[in-house]
Each structure stands twice: as structure tokens, then as C-alpha cells.
Write a structure and sequence with these properties.
Elements: E1 2-3, E2 12-13, E3 15-18, E4 21-25, E5 37-39, H1 50-61, E6 66-71, E7 78-83, H2 89-95
Antiparallel strand pairs: 1-2, 3-4, 4-5, 6-7
Length: 97
């Protein structure tokens, strides 16, 4: 499940279903260092669950999108920027979390 398309011009993954378990994905934008995976309805970290890891690895291997840190020429700030298919960007970001 992806969201943020209209409000920010960016899609992010907010939910994941894998191995018969639902997960909430938090974080914002394309920064893979922010956020993580929690089993829905709990505070249990799901980032190391085999279902999460295998689902995201399979999705990442099917993706042509890359994610890199770039410097904004106007502000000088570093930011994460995807290159490639915009629909794949949330998957690549989630896989790097």
C-alpha cells in the first residue's frame, strides 16, 4: 500500500502483507534511514521477520529503480533521491530500511 502521491508528490509504503502477517511501515519520504516495520496492532519490530525480508528482497530484485543520496544545489542539504520507475521507489526505500 503506497500513499503520499497527491499531498507530497511522493509515494511511500505504509503497509505490507507477508507470510500471513500484516505490517505497518513508518518513515517519511525517500530516506531509508528513518522508520521501520511493526506488526500491525502491536509494537513488535518486524524488520527481521523472514517474511518481510524475503518479500522485499524479491520485490527489490525485480526493480530497476535506484536510490542514492544527493546534494540539493539550491540549499546544499543532502537528500535521498530515487532514479527510475516512480512506482518502484517506495519498494526500494522499504527494502533499504
Amino acid at each position: 500500500d503506497k500513499t503520499g502521491t497527491l499531498t507530497e508528490g511522493k509515494m511511500t509504503m505504509v503497509n505490507l502483507w507477508s507470510a500471513n502477517v500484516a505490517y505497518d511501515v513508518d518513515g517519511k519520504g525517500f530516506d531509508p534511514t528513518v522508520g521501520g516495520f511493526k506488526r500491525t496492532g502491536t509494537n513488535t519490530d518486524g524488520a527481521q521477520d523472514l517474511g518481510v525480508k524475503s518479500s522485499l528482497l524479491a520485490a527489490l530484485l525485480c526493480s530497476n529503480t535506484t536510490l542514492s543520496k544527493v546534494k540539493d544545489p539550491e540549499t546544499g542539504e543532502e537528500k535521498w533521491e530515487p532514479k527510475g520507475n516512480s512506482s518502484e521507489a517506495p519498494i526500494v526505500v522499504a527494502a533499504r530500511k
